[in-house]
Amino acid sequence: MYINTFKYTPKDVSCQLCTEYVKKLGCTALRCPWLAERIEAGVVGYREAVLETFPHERRLFQRLNLLIKHYPGSLWSNEQHERRMQYQCAVQGYRRRRDTNAYYAAMYLLTSNDDIYRRTANCFCKDGIEFGYGQTLCPSPPIPTHGVLTATAIWPSTAIPVWWICFSARPAKPTRRSGRKPLSGIS
Question: Taking the model in full, what pTM does it have?
Answer without folding.
Answer: 0.51
